Amino acid sequence: MKKDAFPLILCLAMLFSAIIEAQHVNFASANFIPPPPELPYAYIKADGTAEPETLPIHRDGNTYTLNGNITNYTLVIQRSDVVLDGAGYTLHGNDTGRGIILENVNNVTVRKLSLRKLRFGIYFLQSSRCAVTQNDIAFRSWHLLRVFVK
């Protein structure tokens, strides 16, 4: 009779273990926190204006110099032949989104800028002759630079 009880006890122990494990999985999935939303966009527009107007950016000809940190924005540069001088200031995200997007522009230089807590540091899309120099890029980025060419 003892030999017949052992398989039954083993099956009950495995069943109990599976029930406990299933409850553990349910608890873990109940703690899911969705990622924060993508960052809103700020622009250096093709006509040379910066938007929103409250951005800490000073324009001198084709050089745009930060005079303060930018927090929780993606900066989209839509103007060719410009220099974005970070002057040591920071573009700070929320672990999502892109820091800077260069789309369909040529001859853009990004320098002396600190990038923090972004999914993509600098995102190039159909842009050419662009330079990234003297920047401080340190965050949990999935991609430092992303380049798309058609």
Overall description:
The protein has 150 residues and is of the alpha/beta class. The protein folds into 2 domains: 1-33; 41-148. 19% of the residues lie in helices and 37% in strands.
Features:
single chain, 6-stranded mixed β-sheet, 2 domains, 5-stranded mixed β-sheet, alpha/beta, 1 helix, 150 residues
Structural class: alpha/beta
> What's the main sheet like?
6 strands, mixed
**How far apart lie the N and C ends?**
75 Å
Strand % is 35-45%
* Count of folded domains: 2
Unreliable residue runs: none
Tally of separate helices: 1
Give the C-alpha Rg: 25 Å
List the strand order in the largest sheet.
Answer: 2-1-6-9-12-15
Number of DSSP E strands: 15
> Could you say which overall geometry the principal axes of the C-alpha atoms support?
rod-shaped
Helix content: 10-25%
What quaternary form is this? single chain
Overall mean pLDDT stands at 82
Task: List the secondary-structure elements in sequence, H or E.
Answer: HEEEEEEEEEEEEEEE
